[in-house]
What does this fold into?
Amino acid sequence: MNEHLLSVGIDMGTSTTQLVLSKLHIQNLASSFSVPRLVITDKEVVYRSDICFTPVLADNRIDMEQIQMFVQEQYEKAGIRKDEIQTGAVIITGETARKENANEVLLSLSGFAGDFVVATAGPDLESIIAAKGAGAHTYSKEHATSIVNIDIGGGTSNLALFSEGELLDTGCLDIGGRLIKVDRESHEITYIAPKIKQLAERRGLELALGQRVTPADLTPMIGEMVKLLEESVGLRTPGDFYDTIVTNKGLKLDRVIPCISFSGGVADYIYQESTGDVFQYGDIGILLGRAIAESPLARQMTVARSAETIRATVVGAGSHTTEISGSTITYTEESFPIKNIPILKLALADESGSGEELAKAISDKLNWFKLNNDLQRVAIALEGKNSPSFQEVQKYAQGLYQGMAELLEREYPLIVIVHHDMAKVLGQTLYGLLGYKKDVVCIDSVLVDNGDYIDIGKPIAGGKVLPVVIKTLVFH
It folds into this structure.
């Protein structure tokens, strides 16, 4: 069996908006006589959109109509219909995520872009997606090393640290190519981001709206921005402005990082010489890229060439957000798609006791998800056991059934996620306890944690597996 999913990635960044379509190939790697083992074996980008400047209205709101028109136009160019799309991600990143109507636009595009497209945003998730699109995780695995990817866009620089293919940490700084805008004709400064203005004042640098500048005039400020990036990866001791420039958090810096890669729009001018007007985009992106290329970031660390630069985030969104469940699972057909369900992950200590103790742990922790004393939909996540005994399955089922009693009073389906391969027998036991009258979704081979959210799509591969997207942040 060899099937494929059509996945869309849409990225609305500070500077640009773009879209990619990817084909995810799914194959059964098990023999004919064993339990199916379906995995995503290949990820192929089949269409790369035009790149447009992110449209912003005069009142600092994203122009939703222009974005929708752009997406529809790209679908027509690619020759696909939105109902052909089975998975993917829409993300708003950088400064754009802070616009007043960002969440509204996300929800609008989520429905517009297909039945199963997840809307996500936030600096941590963006860091991971961009680094995967750039190929940093693959590089760290193939070279058995640690590498940090810095995705430098218009408004933010997103960091993701990998070691031998495993994600270790993420960070984000308010440093980008469009935090100072310069008129292409007059070379007058038309915009200075608040933190950059604050940094200029702290360093005694002249920087004002309407000021006519040359590249040399901007060199001191760009130098300060580069120093902050050096601090972010441990090449300098963090200075007096580092905590101010951090968006939400920086890397822990508890190890030496030998390798670095760059993605985002600025990366093209780190990897290659630029010719022509440095203000051709009306910002300092080209100058920032040149300064990084001459800095210790590129001179003292081993630089890995990214697979993608300006398209890293959108390629990552389209190709690296989807996983698939195990193949021995239980579900009732009418449940899908399921979107934006928060995860309640039980501790191992909760699972190690009796069924009654498991039930109490679940009912107690469900209070975390009450809003105005009303319980929202929740997916319960367990570690589970490999090859559980009949008694162990019964303990888990009874504990879940009793502990989720309040949740079961609602119309919500019962959603259980198990790390180990026991979802089919557990799900069928739960379905029996519920008198075969309640929708049940019990999946395994998916690793989640508290603070995550999950989307589960319609069954694929002849109903054997479910596509899932796990999100660390739905919105930031």
Notes: The CA atoms of residues 358 and 454 lie 23 Å apart. The radius of gyration is 24 Å. DSSP finds 16 helices and 23 strands in the chain. The chain has a mean pLDDT of 83.
